[in-house]
C-alpha cells in the first residue's frame, strides 16, 4: 500500500510538472512594416547563383560549401547547440542508475555491532532520482536551449548565404580585373604600334618630335596601369582561394578557374521593384534574432522559478547481504523512497539579481531583433534601387564606349588628312581607354548589386516547418 501511495504522488507531480506555471511568450514583437507584394517572388531561389549561368561559379560555390572554414565553424556551433539541447532535455526526465559493490570490513569492538568482527558485504541496487519541475525551471531552460539551437542553425544559414554572396562577388571582381587587364594590355600593344609609327614618321621628317613624345607618354600611361591590375588580380585570386577553402599549396601554386567573361554574365530574370511578401521568413538573421529573443524570455521564466521550492524524489531498490551466496534471496531485498523540498528563505538578493540579469539580456535581444528587422528592410530598399540603377549605368557606359570608338576613328582620319593636331587623337584615345575600363566597372557593379539583392532578401533560405516546430 505505501508503494501505491508513493506511485500515486509521483504521477500527480508528473502531471503538474507538465503544466508549468511560468511559460515564455513565443511570439515575435509586432513592428510597423511597409506594404509588400502579396505573392512570393519567383526570382528568389535557394540556388540563386545559377541564374548567372556560369558553371565555373557553380563549382566555386560547391567548393566553398565543402571546404570553407567559417562555414565549418558555424556548423560546429550548431552541433554544440544541439548537444546542449540534449543535456537540458535529459534534465527533465528521471535518472536511473545501477550499481554493484562488495567490501570486506572489520567492525570495531567498541562500536555498535562488535559481534560482526571481520565480515564481507555485497550489494546490487538500482537508484532513481527526479526533480519535479512544477514551476517550469527545467522546461524553460530546455526551451531556451532549443531556441539557441534554432538560432545557431539560422546563423549557420546566414553564414552560408553571406559566404556564397562573397564568393560570387569576388569571382565577378576577378573577371572584371581580368577584363581590365586585357584592355590595358591591348592598349599597350596598340600604343606601342602607334609609338613605333610616329617614330618612323618623325625620322622621315613628316611630323615633329612633339608628336612622338606625346605618343611615348600615352604608352607609358598604359604600361603603368598594368602592374596595378596584375597585383589586384593576384590579391583577388588569393581571396577567392581562401573563400573556397583551398589549401596553401593550391593558393600559392595555382589560380582559380575562369568561366564567362564579365560582359557575358546572364542578368536574367528581371526583378520587380517591390518587396517579397515573405521577407521576414527568408532572412536567416531575422529568424536567428527572433529565436534568440524567445530563448532569453524562457531564461527569464527559469530565473523566476528559483523563488519557489525545488521538489525532488529519490528511490533505491536492490539486494544486500553479508554472504554472496544469499545475495539474491528474498530476505536480502532492500529499498528506500524519499522526497526532498528546498526553498530559499534568504539569499541576499541573489535570485532577484539573477532575474534582473535575465530581463536585461532579454531587453538586449529585443533591441537586436528590432535593429535586425530595420536593417533588413534598409538592405532590401538599397539593393532594389542599386539593382535597377546599375542596369541603366551599364547601358549608358556601353553607349559611351560606342560613341568614343567612333570619335577615335574620326580623330585619326582628321589627323591623317592634316585637319587636326595629334593631341586630338590622344584625347580621343585616352577617353576611350578610360571609358572601356569604366564600362567593366559598371558591368561589375551590375553583377554585384544583383548578388547583394539576393543576399538582402535572404536567398530563399528557410528552415523546414517540422524542424522549426520541433
Automatic annotation (TrEMBL):
Superkingdom, taxonomy of origin: Bacteria
UniProt entry keywords in alphabetical sequence: Lipoprotein, Membrane, Palmitate, Signal, Transmembrane, Transmembrane beta strand
Main localization, broad class: membrane
NCBIfam families in UniProt: outer_NodT (TIGR01845)
Family, per entry: Belongs to the outer membrane factor (OMF) (TC 1.B.17) family.
Cellular compartment(s): Cell membrane
Signal sequence, start to end: 1-22
Pfam families, per the entry: OEP (PF02321)
Record membrane topology: Lipid-anchor
UniProt-recorded name of the protein: Efflux transporter outer membrane subunit
Record keyword Signal present: yes
Organism: Jeongeupia naejangsanensis
Amino acid at each position: 500500500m505505501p508503494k501505491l501511495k508513493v506511485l500515486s504522488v509521483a504521477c500527480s507531480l508528473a502531471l503538474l510538472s507538465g503544466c508549468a506555471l511560468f511559460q515564455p511568450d513565443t511570439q515575435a514583437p509586432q513592428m510597423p512594416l511597409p506594404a509588400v507584394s502579396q505573392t512570393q517572388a519567383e526570382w528568389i531561389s535557394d540556388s540563386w547563383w545559377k541564374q548567372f549561368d556560369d558553371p565555373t561559379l557553380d563549382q566555386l560555390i560547391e567548393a566553398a560549401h565543402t571546404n570553407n572554414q567559417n562555414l565549418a565553424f558555424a556548423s560546429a556551433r550548431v552541433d554544440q547547440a544541439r548537444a546542449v539541447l540534449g543535456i537540458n532535455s535529459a534534465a527533465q526526465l528521471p535518472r536511473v542508475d545501477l550499481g554493484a559493490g562488495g567490501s570486506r570490513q572489520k567492525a570495531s569492538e567498541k562500536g555498535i555491532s562488535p559481534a560482526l568482527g571481520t565480515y564481507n558485504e555485497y550489494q546490487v541496487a538500482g537508484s532513481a532520482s527526479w526533480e519535479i519541475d512544477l514551476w517550469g525551471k527545467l522546461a524553460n531552460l530546455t526551451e531556451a536551449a532549443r531556441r539557441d539551437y534554432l538560432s545557431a542553425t539560422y546563423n549557420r544559414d546566414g553564414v552560408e548565404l553571406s559566404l556564397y554572396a562573397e564568393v560570387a562577388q569576388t569571382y565577378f571582381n576577378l573577371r572584371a580585373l581580368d577584363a581590365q587587364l586585357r584592355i590595358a594590355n591591348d592598349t599597350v600593344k596598340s600604343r606601342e604600334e602607334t609609338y613605333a609609327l610616329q617614330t618612323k614618321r618623325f625620322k622621315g621628317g613628316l611630323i615633329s618630335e612633339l608628336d612622338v613624345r606625346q605618343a611615348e607618354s600615352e604608352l607609358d600611361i598604359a604600361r603603368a596601369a598594368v602592374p596595378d591590375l596584375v597585383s589586384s588580380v593576384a590579391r583577388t585570386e588569393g581571396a577567392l582561394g581562401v573563400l573556397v577553402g583551398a589549401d596553401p599549396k593550391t593558393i600559392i601554386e595555382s589560380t582559380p578557374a575562369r568561366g564567362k567573361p564579365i560582359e557575358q554574365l546572364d542578368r536574367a530574370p528581371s526583378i520587380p521593384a517591390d518587396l517579397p511578401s515573405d521577407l521576414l521568413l527568408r532572412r536567416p538573421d531575422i529568424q536567428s534574432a527572433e529565436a534568440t529573443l524567445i530563448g532569453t524570455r524562457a531564461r527569464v521564466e527559469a530565473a523566476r522559478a528559483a523563488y519557489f521550492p525545488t521538489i525532488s524524489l529519490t528511490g533505491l531498490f536492490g539486494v544486500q547481504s553479508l554472504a554472496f551466496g544469499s545475495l539474491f534471496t528474498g530476505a536480502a531485498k532492500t529499498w528506500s523512497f524519499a522526497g526532498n523540498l528546498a526553498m530559499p528563505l534568504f539569499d541576499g538578493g541573489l535570485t532577484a539579481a539573477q532575474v534582473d540579469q535575465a530581463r536585461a539580456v532579454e531587453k538586449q535581444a529585443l533591441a537586436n531583433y528590432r535593429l535586425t528587422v530595420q536593417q533588413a528592410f534598409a538592405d532590401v530598399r538599397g539593393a532594389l534601387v542599386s539593382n535597377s540603377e546599375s542596369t541603366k549605368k551599364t547601358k549608358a557606359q556601353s553607349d559611351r564606349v560606342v560613341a568614343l570608338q567612333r570619335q577615335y576613328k574620326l580623330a585619326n582620319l582628321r589627323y591623317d588628312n592634316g585637319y587636326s593636331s595629334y593631341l586630338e587623337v590622344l584625347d580621343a584615345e585616352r577617353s576611350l581607354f578610360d571609358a572601356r575600363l569604366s564600362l567593366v566597372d559598371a558591368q561589375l557593379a551590375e553583377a554585384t548589386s544583383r548578388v547583394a539583392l539576393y543576399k538582402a532578401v535572404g536567398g530563399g533560405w528557410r528552415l523546414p516547418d517540422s524542424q522549426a516546430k520541433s
